[in-house]
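Two entries, shown back to back:
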Amino acid sequence: MNKLQSQSSRPVLILCRNHQRGVGMIEVLIAIVIVALGVLAIARLQTNMVRFNQSALLRSQASLFVYDLTDRMRADLQGAIDGDYNRDFADAIPVGGTLPADELAEWLTRIGERLPNGQGAVATAGDTITVSVRWDDSRGEEAVEVFSSTQQLWQP
């Protein structure tokens, strides 16, 4: 009987081995797909990181431009009070020999060089000024980004 049992179990083993053929290949293909999806996710993450870092850089530069002109206006307090710095985004870059016109021309030129489609606007109301910078941030979250700051020129 032992002889019969050993002979009958042999075909069962061979049958199981034939049944498992190709399973290793499927496991390898599934592993390749999972790794490929992971690499694609990392590439997407890297792309978003670069895009958001660029957007943050532009926003930081815009805030520096706003505070730069605010300090310049504090240095020329009378020109700021008289409204010599007032301008809208659509206004042309001023030309002339006055201090406010020269300051605005330099400021607007630097904004145009550093920010894509960069523009600046200034509005005064008494001792309160609002300085705004607008630029194209189509690579970031919004197409047009505006950074504004409203401050008092002096403390009474």
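entry 2 starts here
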Amino acid sequence: MKLSEEKCFTEPYEIDTLLTGYFKLVEGSSIYDPHKKALFQKNGVTESKFAVQLEKSGDYKFCFTSRRQIYSTTFGGLLKIELEIRGDRSQNEMFTDIKTKSINPIEKEIIQMEQMVKQIKKYLDYSKEREEAMRNTSESTNARVLWFSILSLCILFASTFFQVYYLQNYFQRYKIF
């Protein structure tokens, strides 16, 4: 990351996910929900932790900035960010499950693994939907490029035939050829 540059990336998360994270060597950070509402903002700190309970499903945007001159001389103009983000099932849901059922630690681990598998499946389904949408967009673009190429070739051939016809008549008229 360069000095005074803002870097953003998005990640999909499900509703009722507890998003926890840690960042280091960043001057400012923000987290935005799918409707561009700021959930977390911190400026002027180089190291911080955060925890946000997500109330909506969708793509969450993470943005980071750095404006300190010392980083540009220390790291040769580039800044590396240490970032750790973890999205877990809501802690409240887990505690409710544990309180309502008398389960041993192994069963608790199995429940947590099952929830993780469900989250992974949801993410894979979401990724599959995104891949399908991207494939449709790609196919549509390819079709448009094909028709544009065909039109360009038609114009090229028409222009070539016109030039040959014009030059042939020109040479015949002035008896050059």
